[in-house]
Specification:
Layout lengths: L38 E3 L7 E2 L5 H11 L3 E7 L2 E7 H5 L1 H10 L8 H4 L1 E2 L5 E3 H4 L4 H11 L3 E6 L8 E7 H8 L12 H8 L1
Parallel strand pairs: 2-3, 6-7
Antiparallel strand pairs: 1-8, 3-4, 4-5, 7-8
């Protein structure tokens, strides 16, 4: 122990562990509950990120470690380039990249399968303030997406920032309602690939 009488210290013992974050489980909500009750607020919870150059295995490990199914793809903080989900890591995109480019799965990186920024759907934070959970579910269905981003323009900033994330999985956990989505092609290349 040190000589300080105000804050005495002690040495750490072998086997000492780090305290683990205990995220609070969001409570049950109904379809008429405020939409903000199902949004992950990135001003309250740090966004999970990965680099575009990360391998798919590295991205998957990050998801497992962070307990998430989506990562923001960031080359230079705080600017996002897109996002990658568990579906991207094991779905059609990675299979198509392997086939079209003659690569092995372990040669792919996040940039090969991510959804680029220009293809992401977002809702405005101010609109979320007056929306209900049912409205959020309708928006997910309309876009055929598992995630929607929530954008905000903070005072004094010229550009909007991602304020939050709406996740189909989180809404299903909180409401107990299964949300069936039909994937919707959002570009001509996606339509062409669906027809091939």
């Amino acid at each position: 122990m040190s000589g300080s009488k105000v804050l005495p210290t002690s040495r750490l013992e072998p086997g000492t562990a780090l305290a683990q974050t205990q995220p609070s489980m969001p409570g049950r909500v109904g379809l008429d509950a405020p939409a903000l009750s199902v949004m992950t607020d990135l001003t309250q919870l740090r966004a999970a990120t990965t680099a575009p150059s990360a391998t798919l295995a590295q991205a998957e490990q990050t998801m497992i470690y962070q307990g998430v199914r989506m990562l923001f793809v960031v080359a230079h903080m705080p600017h996002i380039e897109g996002l990658v989900t568990t579906t991207d890591l094991h779905g059609e995109r990675q299979m198509r990249a392997v086939h079209e480019r003659g690569l092995r799965y372990d040669e792919l990186c996040v940039a090969d399968v991510m959804t680029p920024l220009a293809m992401l759907d977002a809702v405005d934070f101010d609109r979320m303030k007056s929306a209900r959970v049912g409205d959020v579910i309708d928006a997910l269905k309309d876009h055929g997406r598992n995630h929607l981003l929530v954008m905000e323009r903070p005072a004094g900033l010229a550009r909007r920032v991602v304020r939050g994330v709406i996740s189909r999985a989180q809404i299903e956990r909180q409401t107990g309602v299964t949300i069936d989505l039909l994937p919707i092609a959002s570009s001509f290349s996606e339509i062409k690939q669906a027809l091939d």
